[in-house]
Amino acid sequence: MCDCANCLSLSTPENPRRRLLLGAAAGIATIGATGWLEAAHAEVPSNDIGGDAALKRLMAGNARYAANKPNVRDFSAGRAARVKTQKPIAAILSCSDSRVAPELAFDQNPGDVFIVRVAGNFVNDDGLASFEYATKVLNVPLILVLGHNNCGAVDATIKVLKENAELPGHLPELVNAIKPAVERASKGDPKNLLTAAIAENVRQAVQRLQTAQPVLQSMVQQKKLMVAGGVYDLATGKVTLV
């Protein structure tokens, strides 16, 4: 161990330089701890922003995600505040496909999006009740139906209708829900039926949500709720509104 006079003098609390360094370090630590505590207990931001603003925020986040430039996030920030309440800016009807992650695709914070997922992103009664809760109780101003390209559920429906494919278990119920969109898309004789059916499936889900009584339709008519639709591209990460 070094016992030279200079080293000993630096190690003593009475040394002015050492006191200065220790004080600065303590200050930084205090600021860091205070900042963390403030962030962890920050209030949940209001979602009273309107459907147009909510959609713009989602699409701006998607642009960042597709460019691989997402915001830097502290996922613990606001965690304590969210124990008591949640104020999501949007409710999203998404396909269950593991390659689609709405929170990431729209570059949003925890608590920003309320998500309902089902293979084929169609509206059933359980999903409808969830959206009624999101809009009526949580005051969500926007519902976004999010389909994606190469959707296996829509492709399976096409195979059942065009090739008489047989599916096991409860899968026929899923096909029955998507069948109207495939049939409508087929009437247009599209170059790519799968692509056309995916977009049509989104449109039909949007229409059902817009006209769902007794809750959603009245909120849409009163301009308290916007319902929109989009298709996520698996390769690029971009969402195109339809």
From TrEMBL:
The EC class name is: lyase
Arranged from A to Z, the UniProt key words for this protein are:
Lyase, Metal-binding, Zinc
- Cofactor(s) demanded: Zn(2+)
Which reactions does this protein catalyse?
A: hydrogencarbonate + H(+) = CO2 + H2O
A GO molecular function annotation here is: carbonate dehydratase activity
Its EC number is: 4.2.1.1
Write down the superkingdom of origin: Bacteria
Which biological process annotations from GO are given for this protein? Answer: carbon utilization
The record's cofactor note says: Binds 1 zinc ion per subunit.
Residues annotated to bind Zn(2+): C95, D97, H148, C151
Cross-referenced InterPro entries = Carbonic_anhydrase, Carbonic_anhydrase_CS, Carbonic_anhydrase_sf, TAT_signal
Indicate the family of this protein: Belongs to the beta-class carbonic anhydrase family.
Which PANTHER family does this one have?
A: CARBONIC ANHYDRASE, CARBONIC ANHYDRASE 2
Name assigned to this protein: carbonic anhydrase
Organism equals Achromobacter kerstersii
